[in-house]
């Protein structure tokens, strides 16, 4: 009988991810290289924005992953609270810095794009502001993890912080929306086909998003493995000192 | 519960510092702002609602680490945990005590300081209402933050970092109420949102704080 929970066994997790990791990494690399080169060199310039439109191949996927990383941490935290699988807590811990970097990439590329387009590096626009708040959430989460010595306590506290943070992140999103109507354009991608950007930009963008997702999965797997191994090493060292 | 509340209030008044600290800080912020931006009355009355809200929030933040730190050190927190009172209720009482000792004085002091910042007359009522409704949420959220960091030595900076993003929605809606009020506009929408946030935090966050405290006391 094999259920998904068998992967909560650290040994099984490491075995499985060890087998998957090369494939995912290669796929991530290929789709990122293909997507970015396709996007940067083989798509026409936008008639209004010129070549700066190409920043979307970095900006949109990283912004997407910044939010999805928090969502993944939320799910992992819930699994930790309900079923107390250590791998889940460690995966949440492993995902946080990756999510933070994604948020920073999104903010940085946005600023670089905004300078020529909006004439400013930063505007107190709803999306920008909510991303800044998201950055703060990531920072607080990571800081809390590293401030507590006992791993299980830290896992418990950060999961509760993650739950509360998710509610407040959502709340802030609507609060800043209400607070200021900003410069940011509407959705580039949505299920509603009418609003989508034209196909020339659409397909390389999809490839880039796939690349970012795969990259995120690969990084989280790798970092979770590292966390598990670090914890084992620590346990071994403690045992050695005792004997 | 009432005994706990009275004990906390008494401690706050007699232990010194805690009670007046927030008020003094609020006063300092408000007095220093005109020096920072210049004594232009027009400008001051425009930014007054925001400055008052921000000052109240920072003053609240300043006293957060006192909520559990002393009880943690002398072990009375452990006693509270084994007392027949549920932890959620104890946490709520702690938050209430914090609000009475810091939030309420800030609300009462705000109109006086509003005069210093040249707040328009119509602005006083919305400012008072918004602070009255908003500061309980600040106390409850702060209690959660304090519970998270109670076991950590020198957790003050971490506490501020954790609580900061959680305060953003209250600040936005609260300041919006005060600003719209000062400009004579209708402020019912942000007021309802602010009330919603406060009610939501009071209803839900004590459970999170109690869970966190139990983990920390384990």
TrEMBL record, chain A:
Compartments, as annotated in UniProt: Cell inner membrane; Membrane
Membrane topology: Multi-pass membrane protein
GO molecular function, a single term: heme binding
KW Transcription (keyword) present: no
GO biological process, one term: cytochrome complex assembly
Main localization (coarse): membrane
GO cellular component, as recorded: plasma membrane
Spans through the membrane: 20-42, 62-82, 94-116, 128-148, 160-180, 200-222
Keywords: Cell inner membrane, Cell membrane, Cytochrome c-type biogenesis, Membrane, Transmembrane, Transmembrane helix, Transport
UniProt keyword annotation of Transmembrane present: yes
Classification via Pfam families: Cytochrom_C_asm (PF01578)
Domain Cytochrome c assembly protein: 25-184
Top-rank taxon: Bacteria
Protein family per UniProt: Belongs to the CcmC/CycZ/HelC family.
Record function comment: Required for the export of heme to the periplasm for the biogenesis of c-type cytochromes.
PANTHER family noted in UniProt: CYTOCHROME B_B6 PROTEIN-RELATED, HEME EXPORTER PROTEIN C
UniProt-recorded name of the protein: Heme exporter protein C
Encoding gene (name): ccmC
From TrEMBL, chain B:
Subcellular location: Cell inner membrane
Domain of life: Bacteria
UniProt GO MF annotations: heme transmembrane transporter activity
Pfam families per record: CcmB
GO CC field: plasma membrane
The UniProt record lists the keyword Isomerase: no
Transmembrane segments: 12-37, 43-64, 96-121, 127-150, 157-178, 190-213
Record InterPro entries: Cyt_c_biogenesis_CcmB, Cyt_c_CcmB_bac
Keyword Membrane: yes
GO biological process: one example: cytochrome c biosynthetic process
Signal peptide span: none
Membrane topology term: Multi-pass membrane protein
Keyword entries, A-Z: Cell inner membrane, Cell membrane, Cytochrome c-type biogenesis, Membrane, Transmembrane, Transmembrane helix, Transport
Job description of the protein: Required for the export of heme to the periplasm for the biogenesis of c-type cytochromes.
Family in the record: Belongs to the CcmB/CycW/HelB family.
Protein name, entry field: Heme exporter protein B
Organism: Roseovarius faecimaris
Lineage of source species: Bacteria, Pseudomonadati, Pseudomonadota, Alphaproteobacteria, Rhodobacterales
């Amino acid at each position: 009988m094999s259920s998904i929970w068998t992967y909560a066994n650290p040994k099984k997790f490491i075995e499985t991810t060890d087998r998957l990791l090369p494939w995912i990494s290669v796929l991530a690399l290929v789709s990122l290289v293909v997507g970015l080169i396709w996007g940067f060199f083989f798509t026409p310039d936008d008639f209004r924005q010129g070549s700066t439109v190409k920043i979307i191949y970095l900006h949109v996927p990283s912004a997407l992953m910044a939010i999805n990383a928090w969502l993944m941490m939320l799910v992992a935290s819930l699994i930790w609270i309900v079923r107390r699988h250590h791998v889940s807590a460690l995966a949440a811990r492993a995902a946080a810095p990756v999510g933070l970097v994604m948020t920073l990439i999104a903010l940085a590329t946005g600023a670089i794009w905004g300078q020529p387009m909006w004439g400013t590096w930063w505007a107190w626009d709803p999306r920008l502001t909510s991303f800044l708040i998201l950055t703060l959430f990531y920072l607080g989460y990571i800081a809390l993890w590293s401030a507590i010595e006992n791993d299980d306590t830290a896992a418990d506290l950060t999961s509760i912080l993650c739950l509360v943070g998710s509610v407040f992140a959502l709340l802030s999103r609507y609060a800043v929306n209400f607070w200021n109507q900003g410069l940011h354009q509407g959705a580039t991608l949505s299920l509603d086909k009418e609003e989508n950007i034209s196909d020339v930009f659409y397909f390389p963008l999809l490839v880039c998003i796939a690349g970012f997702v795969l990259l995120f999965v690969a990084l989280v797997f790798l970092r979770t493995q590292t966390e598990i191994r670090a914890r084992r090493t620590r346990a071994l060292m403690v045992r050695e000192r005792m004997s | 519960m009432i005994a706990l509340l009275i004990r906390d209030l008494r401690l706050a008044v007699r232990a010194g510092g805690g009670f007046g600290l927030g008020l003094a800080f609020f006063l300092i912020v408000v007095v220093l702002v005109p020096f920072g931006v210049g004594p232009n009355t027009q400008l001051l009355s425009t930014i007054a609602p925001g400055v008052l809200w921000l000052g109240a929030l920072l003053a609240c933040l300043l006293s957060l680490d006192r909520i559990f730190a002393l009880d943690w050190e002398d072990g009375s927190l452990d006693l509270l945990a084994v007392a027949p009172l549920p932890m959620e209720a104890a946490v709520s009482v702690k938050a209430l005590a914090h609000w009475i000792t810091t939030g309420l004085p800030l609300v009462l002091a705000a109109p006086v300081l509003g005069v210093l910042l040249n707040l328009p007359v119509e602005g006083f009522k919305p400012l008072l209402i918004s602070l009255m409704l908003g500061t309980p949420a600040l106390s409850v959220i702060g209690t959660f933050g304090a519970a998270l960091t109670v076991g950590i030595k020198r957790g003050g900076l971490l506490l501020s970092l954790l609580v900061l993003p959680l305060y953003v929605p209250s600040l936005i809606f609260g300041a919006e109420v005060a600003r719209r009020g000062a400009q004579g506009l209708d402020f019912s929408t942000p007021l309802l949102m602010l009330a919603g946030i406060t009610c939501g935090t009071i209803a839900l966050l004590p459970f999170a704080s109690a869970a966190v405290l139990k983990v920390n006391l384990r």
